[in-house]
Specification:
The chain has helices at about 5, 10-20, 35-40, 60-70, 75-95, 165-180, 230-250, 335-345, 400-415, 420-440, and strands spanning about 190-200, 215, 225, 265-275, 285-290, 300-315, 320-330, 350-360, 365-380, 385-400. By secondary structure, it is α+β, with helices and mostly antiparallel strands. This is mRNA-capping enzyme subunit beta.
């Protein structure tokens, strides 16, 4: 016996002929139709468990069958179609009651790095890969001197110099960002300290938060960074490197074990063209094409530089602030450069004359760059196009990223908990040395 035969007005004799088991249906209970299930049909018969988890189906009895079978054929057909549609609609509603899964902890890409000192101690971060463990870094100072220059003094009551808070915070920030970077991406990572001024958006002047010492500023929504330094400070830095080189050579003139030069110096003359690329089914990106002006014919190279994160170091007692940036420099294939330059107009052009000073003992490269940027405008009187060259001076420090990743791996496997933070403090100290030199002449 099925629902179709009931609704199609089969006679009792036909029902018995087609399915003789129905005569003993009270002794052998069968499952009822879905109609009874969804209409909350309450039957006296004992229900049999349904294979579904949501509901149970009541038993079928012969009184209900005979009552339903007395309806006319025309009405039964319409009711059958309407009933089947109602059944499907109600089942779909039952299925749609399941709500989507909600994250208890945001995924990695949705998390924001927060300095340890600003975190609520009552907050619990569960399985958060961006949360660097403070215990993973050494509790000791990276420059651990148990004695001082004065023989009657000790460095502290514990015999250990506490780690600098700014260095520790920067180390945590780099550690948190390095966790997200794959092994294959490491050669394209750039970690750069740039000199400039942290500007307040409201006053359009240098940030003033009533502090007198170096600190890390985290309220980035109210500020912007103005890169570059003054020409006087730039020339003073150039003189500083010349003095250091000359002093080094004089001190080690008769020492063959030392390298002949303190710095590896490289001069370059490059023109950068910036292209804004929009391809179908791809996110827009900016490609920087660099032309080496010292080669004839010139050689071109291109990268897509993606800024991942920034941290701002405010130096109210110094001439300039610092911005530490972590970026990924994705190389562009050489065969794609020429078609792109022909198809797209460059949005910006910068001519860079750079002096680079590489210092291996401090894993740092110093880039001092004179920048010329052509600016186009129209004359108010003649209406002709006028090109003016805007000059600026930039100072950047880049750390040896592969060496820093090596220290990062040593922290993770526990083989050396000091090396990573040591490299960071040396890198930041180099920027402090340059900043102090410029501040000294300004006073």
């Amino acid at each position: 016996m099925n629902v179709g035969s009931i609704l199609n007005d089969d006679t009792p004799s036909d029902i018995e002929t087609k399915n003789p088991v129905i005569t003993n249906i009270q002794n052998n209970p069968q499952r009822n139709s879905i109609v009874s299930l969804l209409n909350d049909d309450k039957s006296d018969a004992t229900p049999e468990p349904s294979p579904t988890k949501d509901a149970e189906e009541p038993q079928v009895n012969t009184d209900e069958i005979q009552k339903e079978s007395g309806n006319s054929n025309s009405d039964s057909t319409d009711k059958s179609q309407q009933t089947e549609e109602d059944e499907i609609t109600r089942l779909n509603k039952l299925k749609s009651k399941n709500k989507p899964k909600r994250y208890k902890v945001p995924p990695v890409w949705a998390q924001e790095w927060i300095p340890t000192k600003r975190r609520n101690p009552n907050d619990i971060l569960v399985n958060n890969p961006l949360e660097p463990s403070i215990e993973s870094l050494s509790d000791k100072s990276i420059f651990n001197t148990n004695t001082t220059s004065s023989v009657d003094l000790e460095c502290s009551i514990t015999g250990i110099i506490p780690p600098a808070s700014i260095t520790r915070t920067i180390a945590e920030w780099i550690y948190a960002n390095f966790i997200e970077i794959n092994q294959s991406t490491r050669p394209f990572v750039e970690l750069e300290l740039k000199f400039g001024t942290i500007m307040d958006k409201k006053s359009n002047a240098r940030l003033n938060i009533n502090v007198s010492t170096e600190c890390i500023y985290t309220d980035t929504s109210n500020i912007y960074f103005d890169p570059g330094i003054h020409e006087v400070g730039f020339n003073e830095m150039m003189n500083f490197f010349e003095e250091l080189e000359k002093s080094y050579q004089e001190e080690n003139k008769k020492n063959p074990s030392k390298p002949k030069r303190k710095f590896s110096i490289l001069e370059s003359d490059v023109t950068d063209f910036f292209y804004y690329i929009r391809n179908r089914n791809e996110a827009p990106k900016t490609v920087r094409v660099s032309k080496d002006n010292k080669l004839n014919p010139p050689r071109y190279s291109a990268i897509n530089k993606v800024r991942k994160s920034d941290i701002f170091i405010h130096n109210p007692s110094s001439m300039y602030d610092l911005r530490l940036s972590l970026s990924i420099e994705n190389p562009v294939e050489n065969d794609q450069i020429e078609p792109m330059m022909k198809k797209t107009k460059a949005q910006k052009t910068r001519i860079k004359q750079r002096n680079s000073f590489q210092h291996k003992p401090t894993v740092t490269r110093f880039d001092l760059t004179r920048v010329t940027e052509p600016k186009e405008s129209k004359s108010a009187t003649t209406g002709k196009r006028i090109v003016e060259n805007e000059k600026s001076f930039e100072v950047e420090l880049e750390v040896d990223v592969l060496e820093l990743f090596s220290g990062f791996d040593q922290v993770k496997d526990g083989s050396n908990t000091i090396r990573f933070e040591e490299l960071i403090e040396i890198f930041v100290n180099n920027a402090r040395c340059l900043n102090n030199r410029i501040t000294k002449i300004a006073k």
